[in-house]
Specification:
The protein is mostly helical and about 425 residues long. The chain contains 18 helices and no strands. The two termini are about 20 Å apart.
């Protein structure tokens, strides 16, 4: 056993070049879901065509995200600890990936103004829960497959590849499903089939492009423990890990900061497409083009800021990214025209990737070597523990004020509080 209850058997960097590339391509595969379903195409379709009205749809979609995030936050620590003691993580990634694929595919049946809005929201919430929970196990593999000196770069490459994957899926949706007139494949525009088919595209995208990860990226060996014994040890280990965190003040402060500013980022991802569609009256074609352009800037930022992280450290990188997102986000709240929205929104993408990848790099640099696995588990938890809060606050404020602009302003509060908490965290200059 490793310190803190991990399973021995795989040394850092054991994946090799092919395994690392395959690990990154899984991000290419599953990034289609948050890009196409959560943020841009399907979110806007639901609020404008499926729900009773746009304000109600915005609130319903936000609450579905919040519920799925809450369930993830409640279950993932225990499930992650069980996987830690059981040894293998890929079966968990595979199981949740299959659940996400199935639930996403069912969104095809979300016809316009359906009386079964509740079931549409259930399918979406289940898919989002599976996506978020599976990502916990996927991220937890990073310290064991990448050389310690490359964890930051591999983390950045994964984010960058993910943004490119989201871009590619959006492009396919635009060229094959949304733009053709008449629609290809006999799709009926009167029933919005060309938009609903994007759910089938995402499901197929995930199923096909996740295969290299499952075939080429190595997993840790199983521990041989029974499920009952693994669960018993997981409960004890989780309790000890939380208690031991009190001895690591800097890590605890970082995890709190990460939890708060990630709430803001998650909300931005979740409702950005809805905001563009409703407040600036963007069509589905325009939303797709905007999503593609945003992914271009985000992918470029994720790759480029990997070198900035190496030069100045992950904490300044995160703070710069949060400050830039906050300033640009404030400008978006004030502008009225689509042209100015594009001018301020696209540069936000440059800083989205660094805010996430440098956070993962920062965790790798401050985690004590003897408890790295446990600390990465808490890092994953801190990104999900209150992830329901941001979308819920946005939904509540939007509903109460009757304004998406006022609702979106809550994101700036989360970013500011998170940055303030991160400021005093001390980070070693040397990497792990």
């Amino acid at each position: 056993m490793q310190a803190g209850g991990g399973v021995a058997g795989q040394q850092p960097g054991a994946a090799g070049r092919k395994g690392l590339v395959a690990w990154c391509t899984f991000d290419w595969a599953n990034s289609a879901f948050p890009t196409v379903i959560v943020t841009f195409v399907f979110a806007a379709y639901f609020t404008k065509a499926v729900a009773a009205d746009e304000i109600t749809g915005t609130s319903q979609w936000s609450f579905a995200i919040s519920l799925s995030m809450l369930v993830t936050a409640l279950l993932s620590p225990l499930l992650g600890a069980i996987a830690d003691h059981g040894g293998r993580r890929k079966p968990w990634v595979g199981g949740f990936s299959l659940l996400m694929i199935a639930a996403t595919g069912l969104l095809w049946f979300a016809v316009p103004k359906t009386p079964d809005v509740f079931w549409v929201l259930c399918c979406f919430a289940l898919a989002n829960f599976a996506f978020e929970t599976g990502t916990v196990f996927y991220n937890a593999m990073l310290p064991s497959i990448a050389p310690p000196a490359m964890i930051g770069r591999v983390s950045g490459w994964g984010w960058g590849v993910g943004y490119v994957g989201g871009l590619a899926c959006l492009a396919v949706a635009l060229l094959l499903l949304i733009r053709p007139d008449p629609p290809l494949f006999g799709l009926d525009p009167a029933a919005s089939e060309q938009v609903r088919a994007t759910a089938l595209l995402v499901a197929a995208w995930m199923a096909i492009f996740s295969l290299p990860f499952f075939l080429l990226t190595p997993d840790r060996p199983g521990s041989g423990l029974s499920p009952r014994e693994a669960t018993r040890r997981a409960v004890a280990s989780l309790r000890n890990t939380v208690a031991d965190l009190r001895r690591y003040r800097q890590i605890a402060l970082f995890l709190l900061a990460h939890m708060i500013y990630t709430d803001g980022l998650n909300t931005l991802f979740a409702v950005g497409g809805i905001y563009a569609a409703v407040t600036f009256e963007m069509s589905f074609d325009q939303l797709l083009l905007f999503g593609i352009a945003l992914n271009v800037t985000a992918g470029a930022g994720a790759f480029a800021f990997g070198w900035v992280d190496d030069a100045i450290g992950p904490k300044p990188t995160v703070l710069i990214a949060l400050a830039a997102i906050g300033v640009l986000g404030a400008a978006i709240l004030l502008v009225e025209s689509q042209a100015l929205f594009w001018a301020f929104a696209l540069p936000i993408g440059i800083f989205l990737g660094p805010a996430q990848s440098a956070s993962r790099s920062l965790m790798a640099r401050i985690a004590p070597p003897e408890v790295t696995t446990e600390m990465f588990g808490l890092f994953a938890l801190s990104g999900k523990a209150t992830a329901f809060l941001g979308p819920a606050v946005f939904g509540w404020v939007t509903a109460l004020a009757g304004s998406q602009r006022i609702g979106l302003s809550t994101i700036l509060v989360f970013l500011a509080i998170g940055a303030a908490l991160l400021w005093p965290v001390r980070v070693p200059r040397t990497g792990t």
